[in-house]
Amino acid sequence: MNSQTENQKNKYTILIVDDEQANLKLLSALVSCYGYHFETAGNGLEAMEKTKKIQPDLILLDVLMPVMNGIETCKRLKEYPDSRHIPVIVLTSLGDKETRLKCLEAGASDFLVKPVDNAELIVRVRNLLQLKEFEDRNKILTEKIQTIEAVQNIEEELKASQKELLKKNEELKDITESLEIINLAIDKERMELQFALDDISYLLKQVADNKDFGVRFTMPDTIVSGHVLKVAELFNKMMDILESQHRELENAYAELKATQSQLLQSEKMASIGQLAAGVAHEINNPMGFIISNLGTLGKYVNRFKEFIQAQTKIIMAAGNNESIEQIKKHLKLDYIIEDTDSLLKESLDGAERVKRIVQNLKSFSHIDEAEWKMADINAGIESTINIVWNELKYKATVKKEYGDIPLTKCNPGQLNQVFMNMLVNAAHAIEKQGEITVKTWHDSGYIYISISDTGCGIPEDKIHRIFEPFFSTKEVGKGTGLGLSIAYDIVKKHNGDIMVESEVGRGTTFTVKIPVVEK
């Protein structure tokens, strides 16, 4: 045995499970002689606890044991995700075919009849450990490949984002250059206007001097009037140009702010989408086997119930009615059997709710995709409510009044973003506890969605500004002022409109109106 093989063996730990001390000592000495670490357990329950604690690489398991036999122990080990991958060699004095089949059905990797041949046992242990090591390496390799692929995908997305940012930077550069040209033009017009004002002041001074001190300066009235009219015309012309340039500057500035807000929101929603997709993927896998295991557990419980009922009938038929009834009453078996169905049903319902939330999260993670398709607005609102439920449940009861509305061609991800912003704003507007009402209906070729809250309302002097980028009625640090601006742009892209009604102290209602598009 070379040093490399010795080191390879030393890293493995074998759990030996047997209720006979002599067998434990014999097997411990055997595996220790071949360089393996070992731990021991005297029954199935102790083996379960040790497995959770030390995570052995292989288990040697006896069948006939008190408390929990080897077949049941093997079944339980294979039901738990943390131990189902551990190979199990069953060692038993029962060599019949039925026992062998039960062990293999329970998930045993191999089967040996006592007394076992030491050489054969070590060979089978070595083979299973080598197979396990190969599977572990393959798993690690698969995870590395998946990680590399994920990194490559992220790199591609980053490259696409960088291209988009470069494009936006070029647009911002063009706008900045335009602003510089406008500013130069305004400076020029301002200088010319100042010259005109200087001319007016000079002429007015000349007129005043002419009236008060005729001996100093004489000028015909027609000449004075002509100069004044000429300067007045020049002044009006300069004012018109200045106002026109000022309007162009305001429009350019508004376009710049809108471009910046859209860029910020696009990056924000892309990050949220990646996070949501990752979280949904990670939760979806464990929820799958939780639901599957609960279903299997329900089948097992039904078999236990049938067995207990059959056993009770046999015992009662033998004349031990009073004794069996007392035991059942003492252990509260009737209540436990009845309550087991309820517990399993509630657990399955809870798991299904988590699964639905994950599905909604996976749908919501595609919020930034540009796909236009036929969609159900009611389903999109319901999905969005599930996503933001944690923001709503502590502040308000949500009342839903979904109408019978047709499908329409739209960008469902972008509309979900509109509903999300409005629902979160409604929750933030409610100080302690209130009500949010979501209503949909169809009328004259349009779909209407109204979201009402019983919150603080919006002051009349601010309601006309709520769709402006970066304007917010919230406290500093609690809002970016982009949500309703982005929502407004999205609805306008759908050829729709947003109406708002609000009363301070009573609440606010936002109504979204979008046309029904059939193709």
Structure description:
Strand 11 and strand 12 (507-515) form a beta hairpin. Among the domains are: 3-116, Response regulator (Rossmann fold); 369-519, Histidine kinase-like ATPase, C-terminal domain (Heat Shock Protein 90). The longest helix has 97 residues, at 221-317. The chain is elongated. It is of the alpha/beta class. Helix 6 (118-212) packs antiparallel against helix 7. It has helices spanning 3-10, 21-33, 44-54, 70-79, 97-105, 118-212, 221-317, 321-331, 333-364, 377-387, 389-392, 412-429, 483-493; strands spanning 13-17, 37-41, 58-62, 88-92, 110-113, 373-375, 396-401, 408-410, 434-443, 446-453, 497-503, 507-515. Residues 1-9, 211-220 and 476-480 have low confidence and may be disordered.
Which terms summarize this structure?
five-stranded parallel β-sheet, 519 residues, Heat Shock Protein 90, five-stranded mixed β-sheet, alpha/beta, elongated
